[in-house]
Each structure stands twice: as C-alpha cells, then as structure tokens.
Amino acid sequence: MMTTVLVIVHVIVCLALIMIVLLQHGKGAGIGAAFGGSSQTVFGSTGAAPFLAKLTAAAAILFMVTSLGLTFVGRQKEPSIMEGAGKPPAAQTAPAKEAAPAPPATEKTPEPAPGPTPEKK
Length: 121
Description:
This protein has helices spanning 2-23, 29-34, 49-77. The chain is mainly α.
C-alpha cells in the first residue's frame, strides 16, 4: 500500500518537475527581451524567475525524497539475491552414511586379447 502511494507521488512530482523546467526561460532569453520581444509576459515585468526557481528546487527536493523512500521501502520488501554470496559453504554436520561392504572380488586370469595368430614354419 505504501509503495503504491510513493510511486504515485513520485510520478506526479516527476511530471511536475519536467513541466516546471520547460516553463523556464533559457540563459539567452534576456537578449531577446532587450530588442522588444518581452511585451507578452505572464508573470509581470520582472518575470517568473524567482518563483519558478523556488518551485523547481521544491520539486527537486520532493523527487529526491520520494526516490530515497522508494529505495528504502523496496529494500525492506525482498532480500537481495546476492545475500550470503561471500560466505563459505557450511560444513556437513550429519555423519556420512557408511558404504555397504563391497562383495569379494573373484580372481580371474585375464584372457589374451584376440589378434593375429603367429604363423608356424
């Protein structure tokens, strides 16, 4: 439940951060304003720089906080697949079963391998 809420807030903050950054003017916008291009300002003659800068900072802080929150919540959910990877294997604690005695081997003389027979002269 908490993970779902955090994901929803995270996505909303992410989209808000994108929109806020896209609303801001670039560094070269002041040159265009000097030649008469700034008659249609929405936020007044001083512009929206201080307001949007504060809003960007707040959205960035919320984005980082929700990212950290998702990391901590996700880490508590499932253990890592690498957990215990560096540990040596545990020693065998149960006694090994004794092998059944092998049946007595019968002595048998090996037969010669078949091959060409020597010729008699």
